[in-house]
Write a structure and sequence with these properties.
InterPro entries: Peptidase_S1_PA, Peptidase_S1_PA_chymotrypsin, Peptidase_S1A, Ser/Thr_Proteases_Immune/Dev, Trypsin_dom, TRYPSIN_HIS, TRYPSIN_SER
Distance between the termini: 44 Å
Pfam families: Trypsin (PF00089)
CATH superfamily of the largest domain: Trypsin-like serine proteases
CATH class of the largest domain: Mainly Beta
Helix content: 10-25%
Number of domains: 2
Radius of gyration: 26 Å
Keywords: Disulfide bond, Glycoprotein, Signal
GO molecular function, one term: serine-type endopeptidase activity
Family: Belongs to the peptidase S1 family. CLIP subfamily.
Shape: globular
Oligomer: single chain
Strand order of the largest sheet: 17-18-19-22-21-20
Order of helices and strands: HEEHEEHHEEEEEEEEEEEEEEHEEEEH
Number of helices: 6
């Protein structure tokens, strides 16, 4: 086929009114009524070229056009494609439920307002993404909009917040199983969201308190051994998402490249003290699980040592660590895409003292994503 004729096919295809279905797709995306076809460049789809040469009204669909080159919907099997030596086009994997929800919740960092008679988008990101609880720094307003406090009813009248958590959807909070029922206070009953400084009403925060109506510990948590320390708490109603209150993303991949994770919480700033009134943040080095197991030996209820598939360990340089009251809170990584979001890699589980020579241990979120999705988004596919 000569260059002139190929150019003619391109013009014909682009201007064919029936060729575009209104859905933009990139090369490698699935297409067709049943999703079994693949978007390819026209020159790599002999079936499309043959149809353009032989039919007066071609039915070939255009996925998109890039720099004047049509990307067309190509059938799954075409022997002629081998003759043309078309390079294989990788088919993009379908995003998981958690990844789709992450993109959905990222939109709530933006609000709209009128400016000179025109509607503009306003960026409300509070994520500083700086290398940042013991030895931590004060968090900023809207920096951790997913942060939750888990509350317990004390003496039937006062709510005490002694665990942390993270909002992962409009209705669910992720925390640690050992927070579901506290020895002194009983079952977790409340969740506070949108808080920054618990001692101030002038910090710019507008916190809300909701009741917990359902508590789901992982079925393999037994309350004695420290494995599978993860829980979900269902709220009494959906939360209205805003730049101040919006969910965190879940880490779906077991491996990540960051050498450190960012912990946040209102826990004690020293072992024998009181919880911090101001939300704290601290960067902690992620360390090898085998060295973590050696540190603990048989001192805790971990008879088989640290299980790297379900747990991860951190160590704070200097006097840095999570502490009492941080339990159930997130260990997270700031994301560049989607904008102004974090990916939760761990749930604060246990340690020995605070800022000691012992690592902190977290429940590894990626291992439990299927379990989380089953309960939080049961109708999503």
């Amino acid at each position: 086929m000569g260059p002139f004729f190929e150019c003619l096919l391109v013009v014909l295809l682009i201007h064919c009114a029936a060729s575009y279905d209104g859905q933009y797709r990139e090369e490698g995306d699935s297409c067709g009524d049943d999703g079994s076809w693949t978007c390819r460049k026209l020159k790599h789809c002999p079936a499309a070229k043959r149809e353009l040469q032989t039919r007066a009204n071609p039915l070939t669909k255009v996925c998109s056009v890039k720099r004047g080159v049509p990307i067309v919907c190509c059938p799954p099997t075409d022997a002629s494609a081998v003759e043309d030596r078309a390079p294989p086009v990788p088919v993009k994997p379908k995003p998981s439920i958690s990844q789709r929800m992450c993109l959905k919740y990222a939109k709530f960092v933006w609000t709209q307002r009128m400016r000179y008679g025109e509607v503009i988008d306003v960026d409300n990101c509070g994520n500083k993404e700086e290398p940042l609880i013991v030895g931590g720094k004060n968090a900023s307003l809207k920096e951790f909009p997913h942060m939750a406090q888990i509350g317990y009813l004390f003496k039937g009248q006062q709510i005490l917040y002694v665990c942390g958590g993270s909002l992962i959807s409009e209705r669910w909070v992720l925390s640690a199983a050992h927070c579901t029922e506290a020895p002194t206070f009983g079952k977790a009953q409340f969740v506070r969201l949108g808080e920054l400084d618990t001692s101030s009403e002038r910090d710019g925060a507008n916190p809300i308190v909701l009741r917990i109506i359902e508590r789901i510990n992982h079925e393999d948590w037994n309350g004695v051994e420290l494995y599978n320390d993860i829980a979900l708490y269902k709220l009494e109603k959906d939360v209205r998402l805003t730049p101040h209150i919006r969910p965190i993303c879940l880490q779906v991949n077991h491996n990540f490249t960051s050498p450190a994770g960012l912990a946040s919480g209102w826990g004690h700033t020293k072992f024998e003290g009181v919880g911090s009134s101001m939300l704290q943040k601290v960067w902690l080095d992620v360390i090898d699980t085998s060295n973590c197991s050696k540190s603990y030996g048989i001192q805790l209820q971990i008879p088989e040592g640290i299980d790297g598939s379900k747990m991860l360990c951190t160590f704070g340089r200097g006097v840095k660590d999570t502490c009492q009251g941080d339990s159930g809170g997130p260990l997270q990584l700031p994301l560049s895409n989607p904008y102004c979001m974090y990916s939760q890699i761990g749930v604060t589980s246990f340690g020995i003292e605070c800022a000691s020579n012992y690592p902190g241990v977290f429940t590894r979120v990626s291992h439990y994503v299927p379990w989380i999705e089953k309960h939080v988004w049961p109708n999503e596919k």
